[in-house]
């Protein structure tokens, strides 16, 4: 089957994108507009607290959507997850459960639930296949977040089984790109490394101290590619199985740090603080299901994506 996007599919649809003001959201909105979507509603956090049922009802009342793409999440790196595990559980769980339930009740035609790679068990065989999602407990540092987001999959499948509701569940891997969060307290690994290297270079620091020992591996996906994957699935995928959205390429944190140091021009020492946690030992996805079910593959070369991220940070900090 050829998966050729049809502008007619998007032109007539009303779409509600939760988290549309966020990092991934900015790329999803751009991708929707590029495909021809005209009627897009973003419930901004200042006006709509999606943990609050009345606010969810109000957002759906105003937007009357045909499709909901649920990107909104409280997310962050290891430090943020360790500091606020209860918030990460409650906020993510309540947003998702209420939103999907009301979407079904109101007859919203399709619900696109965005999960997280943190939902996978700590010791999942690499590359992670969707069928291994339930083969163990997630990595402890982000389990409350991972499990709260995983409940969207349980809910999706239950509502499909009982009500025939069209809800799909996608699992993006770690994202990066321009407009990411570069706050060292809450950021993920790529923006944190970019900022540390650029700041150290400008201050003339002799070394940059990094968490862990550099041995864990990660897979990273350019946010523009993730948005393209999500929009493609929204148009073409109507199944009950979870689907990984990733680049299919694995890199060690040590190699990543050295690459970012090279691309930012930082030439001094990288020091590993082994008293700090590593997080999950390896993380890389099997992305064959996305290719098979809706003809999608990532297209941005990693170094190219990193250059764009670094350029953006230099211009916008």
What does this structure look like?
The chain is α/β, with parallel strands linked by helices. The chain has a domain at 8-177 and 220-248 and 282-300: Rossmann fold. The protein contains eleven helices and twelve strands. Strands 2-1-3-4-5-10 form a six-stranded parallel sheet, sandwiched between helices. The chain has a two-stranded parallel ribbon with strand order 6-9. It is globular.
Entry keywords:
single chain; 317 residues; alpha/beta; Rossmann fold; six-stranded parallel β-sheet; two-stranded parallel sheet; 11 helices; 12 strands
The class by helix and strand makeup works out as alpha/beta
Portion in strands: 5-15%
Number of distinct beta strands = 12
CATH-defined superfamily of the domain at 8-177 and 220-248 and 282-300: NAD(P)-binding Rossmann-like Domain
Low-confidence stretches: none
Radius of gyration: 19 Å
Do you know the CATH topology of the domain at 8-177 and 220-248 and 282-300? Rossmann fold
Which sequence of SSEs, written as H and E, runs from N to C? HEHEHEHHEHEEHEEEHEEHEHH
Oligomer state of the chains in this structure: single chain
Any guess at the CATH architecture of the domain at 8-177 and 220-248 and 282-300?
3-Layer(aba) Sandwich
Number of helices: 11
Portion of residues within helices: 40-55%
Overall geometry: globular
Separation, N- and C-terminal Cα atoms: 45 Å
Name the strands of the widest sheet in spatial order: 2-1-3-4-5-10
CATH class of the domain at 8-177 and 220-248 and 282-300: Alpha Beta
- The mean pLDDT is 95
For the sheet with most strands, the description reads: 6 strands, parallel
